[in-house]
Amino acid sequence: MKLHNQFLRLHSRCNDNNVISITLGDIAKILDCTHRNAMMIINHMAELGWITWTSQRGRGRRSTLHFLVQPQEIAVQSMMEAINRKDIKRALDGISYHTQSSVLQEHLQGWLLTYFGQHSEIRRDRQIDTLRLPIREQIGTVDPLYMNLLAESFISSHVFDGLLRRSNGSDEEILPNIAHAWDVDQSRTVWTFFLRKEVLFHNGRIMTAEDVVYTFERLIHTSRRTLYSSIFRLIRSIRALTPTTVRIELKEPNELFLPFLCTSRAAIVPRDLEQLGEAGFGIKPVGTGPFKVTEMNESLCSLEVFAHYFRGRAHLDRVEIVHVPWDMMPGSSQAADSLSPFHLIHNSASAGDEWSHLHSDVSVRKFITCNTKKTGPLSDPAIRAHVLSCLRGEAAEQRQSLQGCALQIATIPQYRQDAEFAAEILMKQGCDCSVLAASPEEFKGAVRLESDLILFAFVRDRDEQLRLFDLYLTIAEHVEAHTRIDIETSLRSIARARDPQARAYGFKEIETRLLQEQQLFIMSERPVQTAYLPSVRGVTFNSQGWVDLRNVWFPPVSTLT
């Protein structure tokens, strides 16, 4: 691979001419090596048929270097070697390095597309099916306690299992999972779960009630502010009654507790996690799910099927999830929604096939809320209303109407572009508007409370009511006291409502109030869809709207042609 890079460096420094006059000393300087090494490199390239070298003897005399192959061919060879060695980062860095050449960039991107999708091979009379998925987000951890990103939750949902799960075909139906049955007392605060026998972790150990106890105690005692923390902090006590029976007592009834148990956040982890090394558990996890992690780094997560999965073996043998910044993918654009799901794409053999599109009934809503708890311009309802009017495009003719107003928009890196777009609108009105893009952890803390406007996104999936509960608790932290009290009172009432429709009505009332008080501006809402080719079968979605890899399969190789 080093030789490939040396060829590309030499070709680019020679102004991309195919035939040049040059001294050996010039080549040594370009390649940052000795004259002797430069001659060895030239001879090696000539042996490979990449160049011809006509040497002229004598100090200072110029020789002739003739390039016989195009740089894109060498770059693709280099990428292929890197990817075959699973050195994804180096391959992607290679694309980035050559972005100055549009022809080369297009060539490399086209080849990269063929790398993803379905790949089948026959080994010892067995078809081994691998699915490669590109994702935008860089994976940091799949530990249920520490994950922040949708991509991390997607992987975690296939490595771990929760006590319960949602039906893939119903918004409200909750089904058995690790727990095959459960009871609740009349107060709806004492829940008893009966576990399946001999559910195995990936390391071969049998999961017991003690693992469930450890999982929830770990959540309860964390100092981290995580999604759904308001739900699991309601747990007063949890204990194992038998190896297959767990009792959880809540401080007060909450009808969102069972839906919470279906989420990736509530996935069961082994009680000997510390012995495995908690710091490394996020990249070398041990779960009970249909796939186990065999490799994980900043650019690649490799999953292999767990044959002893209690709900039955998945059809796929391997899944490779690769972090690819979306501007490296063909057909991508900076405006692409950063929360679009994963695409099941095929290799180039089916490039002429028609794409199929499947909607998961999931949408992404981007919004801006106002921090009226902070002393500043937005404490004035009239200014607040005008700011949101500008963002809605209703004050385009009123130039410089926000002259002298200084505002800061807080967001996370994924939505920086949206925040900068909003800031540009306000600056046209004379507003001194800045953008602060903080990490997800920083965003959960003081960054929000120190800013004037807060931009984020909300995924409307089957966990929407859980997400709304968490969202409105968060918004209540940066609104005026009387609004905060009313929101928290409404949320307590929602949590006690057993009817999902009654809860939905309560959430809608909160949204309506925030809109009327000019506390909330909904920027956009877009449905998400997954594109796939006909040869990929079993494409269904789980409760979060993600492709459920448990069900994906390919026809036998002999039927693909």
TrEMBL record:
The keyword Transferase does not apply. Keywords: DNA-binding. InterPro entries: SBP_5, SBP_5_dom, SgrR_HTH_N. Residues 2-101 form the Transcriptional regulator SgrR N-terminal HTH domain. SUPFAM superfamilies: Periplasmic binding protein-like II. Residues 174-325 form the Solute-binding protein family domain. This is SgrR family transcriptional regulator. It comes from Paenibacillus oenotherae.
